[in-house]
Design brief:
The protein has helices at 9-18, 67-78, 95-104, 144-159, and strands spanning 3-6, 25-33, 37-41, 65-66, 86-93, 114-123, 128-136, 164-166. The chain is of the alpha+beta class and 167 residues long. The chain has one domain. Strands 1, 2, 3, 4, 5, 6, 7 and 8 form an eight-stranded antiparallel sheet that branches. It starts with a strand and ends with a strand. Pfam families: DUF5721.
Length: 167
């Protein structure tokens, strides 16, 4: 787990909300405080997609909503003349990308051991911090997945031209 202090909040927010830069993520949850606090539970409600006579009963492919589908909603809540009081986003890297990182890093653990590579994005009204974490299904003493995720996210920020300092 690492914390990344984002140096240019405006640039980061432009990439997060105004482009597909973070579309490799799923939204697990969001809490955005502006004139109200808005809370989004990113879990897919399967009942919404089934049971209708006109429905093709095709379920979304993930447990959580894709960031690409939720980005505009979050943007609409955040945009305006005033800066949000705060917000917190909990994103999960898509499972197929988790698997790719594990395989490329020659990790001894597999996707069946890891629930998610998590990215917590926190804004407190002035500073924006990204914190990586790995969620496991059971305790594993091997910290290789954590290191692979941290290294991968550092490269991600560099590729997206997002300036940061590691804490």
């Amino acid at each position: 787990m690492k914390a990344y202090q984002i140096k240019d909040v405006k640039n980061f927010m432009s990439r997060l909300l105004g482009s597909g830069a973070f579309d490799s993520f799923l939204l697990a949850e969001a809490s955005i405080t502006t004139y109200n606090t808005f809370v989004i539970d990113g879990h897919i409600e399967k009942g919404f997609f089934t049971g209708d006579i006109h429905d093709d009963n095709i379920l979304p492919p993930y447990e959580f909503s894709q960031w690409a589908d939720m980005r505009q909603i979050c943007f609409d809540l955040i945009k305006g003349k005033r800066t949000p009081v705060n917000f917190k986003l909990v994103l999960h890297l898509k499972p197929e990308l988790v698997n790719e990182i594990l395989q490329n890093g020659n990790a001894s653990v597999t996707l069946s051991d890891i629930k998610a590579f998590v990215l917590n994005i926190k804004y407190d009204g002035s500073m924006l911090t990204c914190i990586t974490a790995t969620a496991f299904y059971a305790f594993l003493p091997d910290k290789t997945p954590d290191k692979l995720w941290d290294d991968s996210f550092s490269r991600f920020l560099l590729e997206k031209e997002i300036a940061f300092e590691e804490d």
